[in-house]
Amino acid sequence: MTILEKNIQALLSGVNEPLGNKLLNFIQNKTCSRFNIDENLNIYDKTHNVFMYENLEEELNFFYQSILEKTPRYPFVCIYGIGNALLIKNLAKHYKHLFVFESEIELFILALSTIDLSEELKVYKVVLFDCVAKDLEIQIAMIFDQQSILEYLSLYEMFISSHYYLKYYETSILSLNELCIKSASVAIRNADITCFLPLLTHGQFLQNIPSMLESIPFQRILNERKNKFENAIVVSAGPSLAKQLPLLKAYQDKAVIFCADGALSMLEKEGIVPDYVLNIDFKDCHAMKFFQNKENLKQSIIALECATHPNVARSLNAENCMIVLRNKALYQRFN
Asked: What are the alphabetically sorted keywords of the record (predicted)?
């Protein structure tokens, strides 16, 4: 078995099957046309007519030392550019995880044909990301959401593996860096280490219990309206909504319309009456402005999340309002 085959087999073992299949498909149907690698493991870029490393040994040593000095005792490091994989192999000894991002399929092929990373890949010591994969953001989010990574996201920094990448892939690096920062911010926000949001929403849920007892039972709506319509349309707020309104108006009697509260005002202007208006805001300042025209709401059922702000629940007419419990054990005990 060749080095490339061992590396692809490691990817296909469940580590990164999409990338493994992409590499397998490439070697079966194509050959490297833009890049090649010489006996010294220096990579030549035929498009720009340059070698990746001006002085291979010096440059690899420079980035090796530079990254180590900046990341003492870091559990993980993010690097753009697999290069010839020598730097990746050497750095992997010092970290629990090495996240390597690469945009060029040919560079994946050349690197994984040269250096055996199969053991590092199998235990997630080296994690490869295909930067042109459609689900890249999801892959990053899944990694950053892991507890062992989440705790150290404040250490995040995107490093490069050679000067070549900075010169020819600067735009890609900046774009990837923004994506990683965004994913890290979302992961930290969702973790809510202060517990402020869970305590706030639970308190609001308790305040909403009287309104819940006076409003329409959710189960009754399910029993009475289930299977009454074949089609449903979900309307959310967004810049493209205005273009869809004429079509929505033409079909409003042929489907059940579920409308996010943020889109309600636009539907009202067009004379479109949604069957259900949905709200999940835990702040009243956002939600109250959506329900100002209560006369138009009489034909709709307003579905509130059980932890929505109590002011919103109290301000709406219980006759056409229902408060829906979350599908979690904590809330289902009240069902």
From this structure: Transferase
